[in-house]
Design a protein that fits this description.
six-stranded mixed beta sheet, signal, 778 residues, Beta-barrel_TonB_sf, Outer membrane beta-barrel protein, globular, 22-stranded antiparallel beta barrel, 8 helices, tonb box
């Protein structure tokens, strides 16, 4: 890391004199007329409505600038993406973390920051977008297909989050606001941003502090069977009810800095970003023996006896930062680009779970303590050279190298003992807490099975492509070869059994075109992509009773899933700013990772097995996507902007239980809304409405069906002069609820025979959130 930082700094010092020589001519950064540098007043006071941009790239790319999102005041990149096509979430209510492009699991979507991958704490390699404050975003790009220039980890597509740099802002502004939640809690937010000339170049400084809070209420009803077996299950098979409060409370700190200089032949930029999350997740749960009644922790014939009292507190401290440098030089033999970078993600969590079980002859206290630390480091270098072949055609060759080092340490301990009669007497679950029975000192922590490991993953890629334009046609065709070597050392496995090494190659061709037809454009693409295996699946550890009563054994020899995909679309310009588009997509996925039965008996005895992920399946994903973004100037309403998108999604997999869709894929997602600008009043207002369809997950031992209510957001804005804006936003105004149905089974045979261990109905609700935000430009 230090060597990389020093190298970037020396590179900056080496190239600065060359730029200084051009600082006084018209090609210098500060004076170049072709730069689209917006003043702080233009960013703070939006006199016009933002619309979806038309990308000129050959690839099918949708571009949304910050003006498209800002008026609805999204807190994070995930919140912003709720208004773009084909992005769904299976997050908690009023949270948007793991983006699911085309409805697929987050691991199928490639997340880039400024065009480069960044490490995240998730085992499936996904990056949670709620870690990126929306205020730092310049634009969001949805790349529907793949290119040889980028990593092929993009079966569903790519979401590229472009942060602000020195060429996006001239001047500065401050931001301040507050959020009011359903339970009366108020959380502040603030920020400072500045862009301007510095030496021969330009600098961007941004910092943001955002209070985060999410108070939720959950309710679960559990049964011993399901309606498919027992029409009268509600009365005959009731087991217990759980009432739960769940509060997520924390603060995000973030910032980014960029300094760039441009000369007649050479451009240079150095940039960095930082995000820190301090968060506490507190859950309190009560289980009762009646669907509605509440009494106390006494075994009586009266309904509403308290069965268990559970308190769960997880303290989360996450920190990520990155540093990168880029050099772009144009010379007689073409254009050469070099980019180097380092990124780190640290995740530390301390989770306490205390429970008192009253549903036994002697009440029992159980205390679990789990500590989790993950450090994920990535260092990369990318070199590309573009040759001009004449007649508007270029040939590019490039190489990419990345080293990933991931260390995980999960340790846990349990303390258990019976409570005295005095402890039980007079127990009031609303005034007492199970934590008061916790011992002063837990026993020594012990590594959890599979929880103490290191993973080293080294990539070496090369690529070549041809691109160009000829009249109405713009095209790109290329191929990328990716080589990956993975080394795993799991210290929780017996000596000599926890280390493994594997490597694999992938050849990934791609091609795209864009053809102009009058006011419209036809886009098409075909590409081969891949998905690398989950980290927890390639660990050699054996996790007992992980899937129902079945054990899960990791498989270090898992290969990546691969997919051939195609996109075909058409977009049409409407008036000055509008665009309407339609796109068809298809993915043929091979070597799907499915859970297979090894045949070995599981740790729970007869009827249970040791299961293992294997490359054993194939699947198809397909759908159609519509999007619209336009003002109504063609009917005389240029200050009325409308937007909308609709995606119809489908897929097919055959597993050991039969046919199903890809896990977690909603059947549809749509969003529509409007913005009305009131120029004479220097004001604006608007609304957006969003809904996504049901999603089903089927795993060994559990099946989950998830549905969401609709989401309505409204804003009102007042502009004062040319430097001040105040905005009020209401979100989740329909009290959107999340409902989940769980089918739980003990063994594979039980799941096939539909012999339920438990059937659960769970609902989750969070109330409206109101936000007031003011910005002042200087």
């Amino acid at each position: 890391m230090i060597r990389l930082f020093c190298g970037a700094s020396m590179l900056a010092l080496a190239v600065t004199p060359a730029f200084a020589q051009t600082a006084d001519n018209p090609d210098s950064v500060a004076e170049r007329p072709d730069r689209d540098i917006k003043t702080s007043q233009e960013i703070v006071v939006q006199a016009d409505i933002g619309f979806r941009n038309r990308s000129e790239a050959a690839e099918p790319v949708l571009v949304y600038d910050e003006e498209y999102f800002q008026r609805f005041e999204p807190l994070t990149a995930g919140d912003a993406l709720k208004r773009v096509p084909s992005v769904t979430f299976l997050s908690d209510v009023i949270e948007s973390d793991g983006a699911r492009l085309r409805g697929l699991d987050p691991g199928y979507t490639q997340i880039l920051i400024n065009g480069e991958k960044v490490p995240g704490g998730q085992a499936d390699r996904s990056f949670f977008l709620d870690r990126i404050p929306a205020e730092l975003i310049k634009q969001v790009e949805i790349v529907r297909s793949s290119s040889a220039r980028r990593s092929g980890d993009a079966v569903a597509g790519t979401l590229n989050i472009v942060l602000r740099d020195g060429y996006t802002l001239d001047g500065g502004y401050v931001r301040g606001g507050a959020l009011l939640f359903d339970d009366g809690k108020v959380k502040p937010s603030s920020g400072f941003y500045y862009g301007g000339a510095l030496g021969p170049g330009r600098v961007l400084l941004g910092a943001n502090v955002q209070g985060r809070y999410n108070p939720k209420k959950k309710s679960s009803l559990r049964f011993g069977d399901s309606p498919e077996n027992d029409p009268d299950f509600a009365t005959n098979e009731f087991d217990n009810r759980e009432d739960q409060t769940d509060i997520r409370n924390g603060t995000d700190y973030s910032g980014n800095v960029a300094w760039g200089i441009e000369g007649a032949t050479t451009d240079f930029e150095i940039s960095g970003s930082y995000v820190r999350t301090d968060r506490t997740e507190s859950e309190r749960s009560f289980e009762y023996d009646d669907p509605t009644a509440i009494t106390g922790p006494v075994r009586t014939s009266t309904p509403g006896n308290l069965l268990t009292d559970n308190a769960n507190v997880n303290s989360i401290d996450q920190e990520s930062w990155s540093l990168g440098a880029e050099l772009d030089h144009r010379w007689a033999l073409g254009e050469t680009k070099l980019r180097v970078g380092f990124a780190r993600f640290d995740d530390a969590q301390d989770e306490f779970e205390y429970e008192v079980d009253f549903d036994r002859s002697a009440p029992r206290f159980t205390g679990d303590l789990t500590t989790r630390t993950t450090r994920d480091d990535e260092v990369f270098a990318k070199l590309e050279h573009v040759f001009g072949l004449g007649s508007g055609v270029d040939f590019a060759i490039g190489a990419f190298a990345q080293n990933k080092d991931r260390a995980t340490n999960i340790q846990t301990i349990r303390s258990r003992f019976n409570l005295t009669a005095a402890d039980r007497s007079g127990y009031d679950q609303f005034s007492r807490d199970p934590g008061e029975f916790a011992p002063d000192n837990f026993p020594a922590l012990q590594p959890a099975a599979g929880g103490l490991n290191t993973i080293d993953e080294d990539r070496r890629d090369v690529y070549a492509l041809v691109e160009g334009d000829s009249g109405p046609l713009r095209f790109e065709a290329g191929v990328r070869w990716e080589n990956t070597e993975v080394r795993i050392d799991d210290q929780t496995v017996g000596a000599g059994l926890g280390s493994s090494r594997t490597d694999y190659d992938a050849l990934l061709p791609s091609a795209s075109f864009k053809y102009q037809v009058g006011a419209g454009r036809v886009t098409g693409s075909v590409a081969r992509t891949m998905r690398r295996p989950r980290f927890d699946y390639i660990s050699p550890a054996l996790l007992e009773a992980e899937l129902g009563d079945n054990d899960l054994l990791g498989n270090p020899l898992l290969r990546p899933e691969t997919a051939w995909g195609a996109d075909l679309g058409y977009e049409h310009r409407i008036g000055r700013t509008g665009v309407i588009g339609v796109n068809l997509f298809y993915r043929d996925v091979k070597d799907l990772v499915e859970i297979a039965n090894t045949g070995a008996e599981g740790s729970e005895g007869a009827g249970t097995f040791v299961l293992q992920p294997r490359n054993a399946g194939n699947g198809e994903v397909y759908g159609i996507e519509f999007d619209l973004s336009s003002d109504l100037g063609f009917i005389g309403l240029r200050d009325t902007g409308v937007f909308g998108n609709l995606s119809l999604l489908d897929s097919n997999i055959t597993d050991q239980f039969g046919e199903r869709r890809f896990n977690g894929q909603s059947k549809y997602v749509y969003n529509f809304g409007f913005i009305q600008n009131l120029r004479t009043l220097a004001a604006a207002f608007g609304a957006t409405y969003r809904k996504q369809g049901a999603a089903v997950d089927r795993l060994v031992g559990e099946e989950v069906r998830t549905t969401y209510g609709a989401d309505l957001e409204v804003f009102v804005e007042k502009r004062i002069g040319d430097s001040f804006t105040i905005r009020a936003v209401g979100s989740n105004l329909l009290d959107s609820a999340k409902a989940e149905t769980f089918n739980k089974f003990t063994t594979i045979a039980d799941q096939i025979d539909r012999d339920f261990d438990e059937y659960e109905l769970e609902s989750e609700r969070a109330g409206p959130v109101f936000q007031v935000v003011a910005r002042y430009a200087f």
